Amino acid sequence: MDAIHQKVLFPYATVFVALAFITMFLVKHGDAKIDKKSILESFDVDMD
User: Virtual CA dihedral for 33, 37, 42, 48, nearest 10 degrees?
Assistant: First the structure.
């Protein structure tokens, strides 16, 4: 903080808060769609 000064902190924080809001507005809302499977496919499990 001594090298940068406290005057830089407020604009720096303001820019990154604005970037955070922009990225939050780009998030698509909603649940993922679940594919319907047959009864046998629902028991199919990979055992690696």
Answer: -70
pTM: 0.50
Residues in the chain: 48
Q: How far apart are CA 16 and CA 14, in angstroms?
A: 6
The tens digit of pLDDT for each residue in 1-48 reads: 677 778 888 999 999 999 999 999 888 776 777 777 777 776 776 665
Query: Which residues have C-beta within 8 Å of that of residue 1, sequence separation ≥ 6?
Result: 9
* Alpha carbon distance 36, 41 (integer Å): 9
DSSP state of 5: -
Q: What is the DSSP letter of 7?
A: G
